[in-house]
Amino acid sequence: MPIRRIYILSLFLYLLYSLWCFIHFGLEITDSDQSLMWQAALDISQGKVYVPLFYGQAYNSMAEAWLAAPLVWAGVPACRAVPLITWLMGITPVLIAQWMAVRRSKYGAAVFILLFAALLPDSFVQTCQMSRGFVQGVFFTSIGAGILLAGRKSHWIAGTGVFFILFGLGQNPNAIFLLAPVVFSTNLRRISWKQGVAGICGLLLAVSFFVFAQYWYRLHPQNLIHVKSGLFDWSGQILISQLPKSNAILRTVFPGGVFGLVILLALSLWWFAGQRRTQLAFIFLIIAVFFSMGSTKTTEASDNVFFGYSRFYLALPLALLFLVSGSNRSIKIPNIPFYLLALPVFLFFAFRSFQFRTHSNLQEINKAYIPLMVEKISTVKSDCEKAKDSAQKYGAKGIVVGGHYLLELFSCGCNALVPDYPAVMRPSYERRPWLYKDYENLIPGKVIFLELWQKDSAVFKKFTGIKRDIRGAAFILETGTLNFPKVADSLVGKKAH
């Protein structure tokens, strides 16, 4: 049948398109926060587990690093393994949604899901490839949604679905919009007491992990740089101030922004006529999206995709795809020769691939404000190699990152990019306080100090040495018998541990 052949073609082209985007973005460009995930994958692959959640904060997690750790252990560089896992996590919700349609023989719906997923803005695709915890929530929650919406009778399977949903929401609450297709598709009267008990067990298991994590951080506050996320700080005043920006915000994850969402709502009310639960789910999503704009966290964004609004709303278009996959109505495809359908589908994916490549230009991305460093991975690797070569040339056994715009790209990223990199710390903003203990017996004798803002006289007043260039000012300093942490703290004017 032509419809099945079109589905197979659409699935193949979607995977090819997604792989193209990954190669030209996920494997090309990174930022200083993603290098933390690389470092975590390296640590975990070596059996070193320091904290339950993301380095330096009591929210988000290192799930991407945990899943990438086996690959790193097997020899895949962390700077490749982690982005690969993130990419797979990012496309999983789409694959689950289309699979749910196919298992009900709704091939037209599956084709629509794949085409619509490819139509989503470039900023959505780019955000789904950033290894910063953005996709962890939608990944786990979509697995749970797929399990529950598949309609399995086993109570333990239902309990597993509840666990994944709650575990995903705990990873990143941006997945909350995926609750709409689950909640509005569930008939509470049909839930057996066994399924209810299993669901409660799944809930308790997921919640217990995050309760433990918060308790652990209360006992170890030295591991916190960011104390709270601000996600649940809601204000009507913020909501009013954000509403004028709503079109710009939604345009990052949905074609046409507010206008496109309103058109889709109108179409859904017509298309799903008679399916009251599905209609209510669409209405709920619209209300929830605008209500969420009152969160303090949604103000922490700019027009730069690496600090964009899209990271808050990744689940919105995915929730719509799940609603389509669960619909009782069929999307008909004209019964015409296969090639007449295949040609426009192929041209659509080709156009989107070209469009994405054009919009993934680093110079264009860096035009908008961002509070972290974005750079090509190849460029960072070259800088790291230069720093390592300089350390070997001058006999420096440690590198201190001070006021330098490469941030964690130098202090964490270089470990994943260059083998046998020297000991390195960023004492003014170090997310890994255990380094103070790890390096307490390291007497470097000489260190390289990467610093752009301190005057030369201020640096040489602390230690004698020479000045060279490694992506900006680099001081080669004689540090005597001081251990590495004390040297690092003194260089940035921080009280020694």
Layout: helices, strands, pairs:
Blueprint: H1 2-26, E1 29-31, H2 34-45, E2 56-57, H3 63-73, H4 78-102, H5 107-119, H6 122-127, H7 136-149, H8 155-171, H9 179-183, H10 193-219, E3 224-226, H11 236-242, H12 246-250, H13 257-271, H14 276-292, H15 315-325, H16 338-359, H17 362-365, E4 374-376, H18 377-394, E5 398-401, H19 408-417, E6 423-425, H20 435-438, E7 446-450, H21 456-462, E8 465-469, E9 473-478, H22 484-491
Parallel strand pairs: 2-3, 5-6, 5-7
Antiparallel strand pairs: 1-4, 7-9, 8-9
Helix pairs in contact: 1-4, 1-5, 1-16, 2-3, 2-4, 2-19, 3-4, 4-5, 4-7, 4-15, 5-15, 7-8, 8-10, 13-14, 14-15, 18-19
Structure, explained:
With 497 residues, this protein is of the alpha/beta class. The chain folds into 2 domains: 2-365, no CATH class; 374-491. The protein is 57% helix and 7% strand. It has 22 helices and 9 strands. The strands form 3 sheets. It has a 5-stranded mixed β-sheet, sandwiched between helices. The protein has a two-stranded antiparallel sheet with strand order 1-4. Helix 19 links the parallel strand 5 (398-401) and strand 6. Helix 1 (2-26) packs antiparallel against helix 4 (78-102), helix 2 crosses helix 3 (63-73) and helix 8 (155-171) packs parallel to helix 10 (193-219). The chain is elongated, with a radius of gyration of 25 Å. The termini are far apart. The mean pLDDT is 90.
